[in-house]
Amino acid sequence: MELRIERLSKRYPNGTQALQDVSLTVPLGMFGLLGPNGAGKSTLMRTLATLQEADSGSAFLGNIDVLKQKDEVRRILGYLPQEFGLYPKISADALLTHFAALKGISNAGERREVVRALLQQTNLYEHRHTSLGNFSGGMKQRFGIAQALLGNPRLIIVDEPTAGLDPEERVRFHNLLSAIGENIIVILSTHIVSDVSDLCHQMAIIHQGRVVVNGEPAILVAGIEGKIWKKSIETSQLESYRQRFQLISTRLFGGRNIVHVYSDHLPETGFEPVKPDLEDLYFATIKGFTRTTPTLAEVVR
Ligand code: ADP
After folding, report:
1. CATH fold of 3-215, please?
2. Distance CA 233, CA 230 (A)
3. Which of 130, 183, 246, 297 has the smallest number of Cβ neighbours within 10 A?
4. Whole-prediction pTM
């Protein structure tokens, strides 16, 4: 089964064009949707999660028409929204049991079994009697995944899941996601590049409501091989470099600025070539330095 999104567009009543002809094919496994704040990621995720309407276009999950057959989608969807409220005084076990009942698992014995398995899978079993108000950020996110996994979903959507997690919690959350992401479609929407490079076999970059890059991270990164250059400069030189070169990023290292620049050839003496990574591709793309291949939908339009 795959998810096929074709020419999805959405304009909000205030005139914001949040999605513009978005076309994507999302296969089984982890798919990273990367884009800066305001790119349209949540709009796309909420549309796929049947929580809001698109203006035009289509989305099919296998044979299910996602925009029309909302009940069918909800039956096989697990959704972890960007922000979700948890009742702070209820224990993890009690709330997950409640959600399981809402999801239609009506047999009490089966419910207990499902809840126990999910709490174990998300490493929360030993905290099952702890009230959710006492959970750390990472534990809350893992609880979010546990509730999203109720009812054996075929499609899981996670919106900005690692924002605010400390590095250790992030690793645990990544391990959990990659363990569940093998036989179902998991869409991970994020502005954190390393979430995608660590986890996803397929990805897209969305910018200003449009898909600007789509494919396998390693292949996409190979496409800018030989075009990324670095140099260590003083802070006082930054502005002039910003004006003279296609500056991708600056990073402080030992009190100096390491700049990465996008260029087809050596920008000036003192630069050295670097092996590009996904971060270089991402910033070069959203800053408009790379020329993108038009999508099929754009070609046939
Ligand atoms: P992302 O999730 O990538 O940050 P969003 O989908 O939240 O992006 O937003 C895309 C654009 O649509 C932004 O310009 C945002 O301000 C705008 N937007 C989002 N929701 C609404 C809304 N309900 N009404 C009007 N504009 C909105």
Report:
1. Rossmann fold (3.40.50)
2. 10
3. 183
4. 0.89
